[in-house]
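Human: I'm a chemist; would you kindly supply sequence and structure tokens for a protein?

Assistant:
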Amino acid sequence: MAAEGEREYLIFCDESAIDGKYYCNFYGGVLVPGSQHRLVSERLEREKLSLNLFGEVKWEKVTEQYLPKYQKLVTAFFREVASGHLKVRVMFRQKAHRPRGLTSEDLELQYFKLYYQFVKHAFGLHLIPRREGGTKLRLYFDRIPDTKEKVAQFKAFLLSLQQSKPFREAGLAIAPEDVTEIRSSDHVLAQCLDVVLGAMQFRLNNWHLQKLPGQRVRGRRTRAKEALYKTILAEVRHLLPGFNIGTTTGTRGDAKGRWNHPYRHWCFQPRDTVFDAAMTKRGGGR
């Protein structure tokens, strides 16, 4: 990842509304320098075409038939990560840590508040090497499922980040037109992120163990998804040996690891929580 001299960074964000048994509130992002965005996207689009993947790539589309194609695409995606052209971050919450004292407003705005925390902290943006003239930040979100009023409020909160001390010291600037909703079908980076995010929530919530009603064995689609998850995990562990998907990734001796690491997980925990062992994999069964 180019560190010095980058004039702007783009972050493509995605989230999952699916509420799993053990983990929930999944948010993901892929960051690319402006100087690399077109080149990386073109390479991945060519990879898609070579695999005859003409439509939108999504985790929910994974089947036994498409498994080899998706494996090759995610391998190409992680090749870009390993080359320093992309950074990937995933945030989620363990349901066993149940937040206390939430107001009705907190619950109503939970989606946006967690997204805000993800953007603010997950990439370690305050650690970006300061550039003469400052650095622009562009934020791209898949269609946000809420009212125009709430979306406008959310965007205003994101714009206010540039006024915070850490962002000011890093020289980060966000223009109103650079907080944008997109169609993921138009952006290959958003599509690859969807697959990675889907794989992580699939495994963390033990959906790889699901069986069809009345069946003794798992379905072909479930087994295909597990195989794709294992491909993704192997790629991540090539970057971060010993990586644990269920915990926050440590700095591994790098004080600036939150920015420098190519891939990281963040298991978000609210300040005031009560631990419910029954909601863990061990306490609630497999």
Remarks:
- Strands lie at 8-16, 23-33, 87-94, 97-99, 135-142, 172-173, 179-182, 263-268, 273-275.
- The mean pLDDT is 91.
